[in-house]
## 1
Amino acid sequence: METYRRAGILHRVVRRTAATRPMAKIYGVIQQPLDRLVSRLTGGAATASSWLAGVEIAMLTTTGARTGKPRTLPVLDLADGEDTIVIASNFGRPRNPSWCHNLRANPRATLVADGIAREVVARELSGPERERDYRRGEEVFPGFTRYRRWASPRRIPVFRLEPQTTAWALGDCARVADEVLAPLGRELAAACAVTAGRRVLDVGAGAGNAAIPAAQAGATVVACDPTPELMHAGRRAAAARGVELEWVEAGAEALPFEDDSFDVVMSCVGAIFAPDHRAAAGELLRVCRPGGTIGMINWTPDGWSAEFFDVFAPYAPPRPPQALPAVAWGGEGHLRELFGDRVDSLRLERATLRVDRFDSPADLCAYYKANFGPTVAVYGGLAGDRDRIAALDRDFLAFATRTNRGGADGPAVYDFEYLRVVARKAAQLP
Ligand SMILES: C[S@@+](CC[C@H](N)C(=O)[O-])C[C@H]1O[C@@H](n2cnc3c(N)ncnc32)[C@H](O)[C@@H]1O
């Protein structure tokens, strides 16, 4: 973040004028709508404040304290390592801004900065820590010094937004992959016709559910995933099966590989979790060679997994309104639009994975609560709130009972619907 002393002349002038009473009044009214407008027009790359004042603005989505609905507002983003400091100055006005009440009622939020969405937990600061972080704000924007005075006797709240441990690192997702999803990984590697000598990239590889079978087929495989904990488990599993792969920490929206560098780029319910679908699709295509294969297994928007995620959504941190759900990747129309004419053949088939390893719906719920990271994260986020935990337990069990296809005395049976995608990258891109 550019401090005031280092800022260019225009940025200094704007920051100074925003700290005068008449301009603070005007900015107080126009800043948010203007920032939102420019952010929309530039696809999140800039805001009016970043252009005019050289400050970084992030979009913060909180849960409305009264409405319970997601509410997105631009905030001055004072990055400090992995954390972000936000100061509820409200231009020195006598009241706290709405997002401050929202964070106090529900500290879990989503922050989008530089087009990257992160789930965060807000911690309100006090004592010397608050003073230290307030000063950091003053170094960037001297108006904060005046706002302190103008706001008095209101004491301006300061929050640290700390990234949540990625949900996928919680519980034991490698176990879920091994015990529930394993057939999908093998199926994907086969659908992509992975054979010896091929150079294969598995995106959102987790513990190597598709990558390890590809390596067993003799391919040279790179497994990439943003969750290192899962890749550690993958390394151990690969060693146990006598194969070697390269493991790289990366998300689907920014793959650290050269253009056209793989014969096959595949993802088994992995890349679908990248919040920016367009960026992820662009990356899968970019790193695949012309004529190469892109294969995916994607949960469908009306299948079991979509309903599963819907159960947890009301109890999870709010998502930015423009963020598309992962299961949208399983819709044929959405997928055709994402790949467009950058592929010259596209085979889409719906199929189901039958899961009959659970004795009962209650057994499935207990297993997911203990092992499936996103489920563990949602329960953890309820921070011991007994009523909400009980309500989620009821909703989860009702869902598991309603979607059980098994008989009364047999094991529970679930059909997980997915879309199998096999595309060939166009030999010449348009
Ligand atoms: C359901 S698991 C699937 C893992 C593995 N492909 C399998 O079949 O077992 C989802 C995976 O998506 C990964 N993931 C989450 N966000 C991602 C992103 N932005 N880009 C790529 N992968 C992501 C998670 O770390 C996790 O490993």
Note: The domain at 9-163 is CATH 2.30.110.10 (Pnp Oxidase; Chain A).
## 2
Amino acid sequence: MLVFILFTIINSKQVSFLRHGIRSPNDYNDQDKEIWGDYPQGYLTQKGFDQVKLMATNNFTIHDENGYCNYESFNMISSVKPRVIHSVIAFIQGLCPQNYNEILVQYFMDYYKQYSTDTQNFDKIINSNFSDPFKLNFETFKINNDFMFHGHKSEQCPLIDVLDDAIYSSAEYEEINKQVRQHKQFKNTFKLYKQCNRNSNVTEETITITQLKKLYSNILCNEAEGLYDYNLNTEQIDFLMNIFKFQYFEIDYSQPLQHQSTLSYILKWLFQEFFSEVEESFFYGHDDNQYALLSVITKEQSYVKFAGRLQFKITNDEVNVFLDDRLLITNFCREGVNCKISDAIRYLNKYVNPNIERDCQLII
Ligand SMILES: *[C@@H]1O[C@H](CO)[C@@H](O)[C@H](O)[C@H]1NC(C)=O
Ligand SMILES: *[C@@H]1O[C@H](CO)[C@@H](O)[C@H](O)[C@H]1NC(C)=O
Ligand SMILES: *[C@@H]1O[C@H](CO)[C@@H](O)[C@H](O)[C@H]1NC(C)=O
């Protein structure tokens, strides 16, 4: 019996990296200000909440036949940004339809409480029964030195700023911008940029891919929320999507320090979860976390959707990686699929820097 139980534990498990649902743009341009009014920036929407809840209902079954979850059956860590906390609430509501309140109260006590900066507000949250989460205030949580969810930010890693300055003033970056400005889809895309940023003094000669990437990021929010139809043609979508991916895979996650800074903590957690006793582990975070992982796992460049899932599925001693149910060809072993866990760890361990805090500091 014991042998059987141990076997089932090791036999199959999965570690899921999850992105929050549909949100408002992080940084409103002139047009976004009109569309969103006083809705907070970078905030989950009701539509995003429903999306995450449905994703949980459709993709995960950890509850029993009556809809009750056992708190001990999963591990979860999560970012403390309000859009992620809202998504965690939606996720648990979908995951544990009958006892989500009990599960959430326990999770808030075990996990979020240590990051709370306001006891009164925290008590209000855990006594709320989570039936109207948009009435709650989640701005009162803070993780210091947050390498797990925001390792890419200069707050954690000051040297990233120095690196960015070098990239953005390089001849290569200028060359890419020149090429983009010669593309057939550039002129109408520049017009679109001006339409959304009326007060900007940027010109056709000075606009950069980084500015176009930001524009597309906001467009993706507005379209997902159904607030505005930009009527982009297929070629223009491809043009913008290629810029979007270029910014992530060739700029934000292209240098060793960027990989180490974003991935050292995440990978240490991942390895630990490979060998944990639960069958389900959840990392609730941001698209940045998934882009950082994707940039080293596979050669493919993919878009990380709202409520998107990057999942490591383990069967016996082999691992496969899926992005929204699509099997990825990994760099872990020659075949790219069914790689040994030990090969995956050996490969990924290159991106773990045990002294990342020290190596991120400027030494003057
Ligand atoms: C996961 O959820 C999404 C969104 O709800 C759904 O479209 C998809 O089919 C689900 N995948 C599986 C394997 O059930
Ligand atoms: C949750 O609390 C609200 C307001 O306090 C109340 O109206 C609602 O009935 C409660 N829901 C449940 C499921 O207890
Ligand atoms: C554009 O305007 C900003 C202030 O809004 C100013 O700092 C910048 O120098 C201007 N750029 C050009 C190219 O005129």
Note: The CA atoms of residues 31 and 284 lie 30 Å apart.
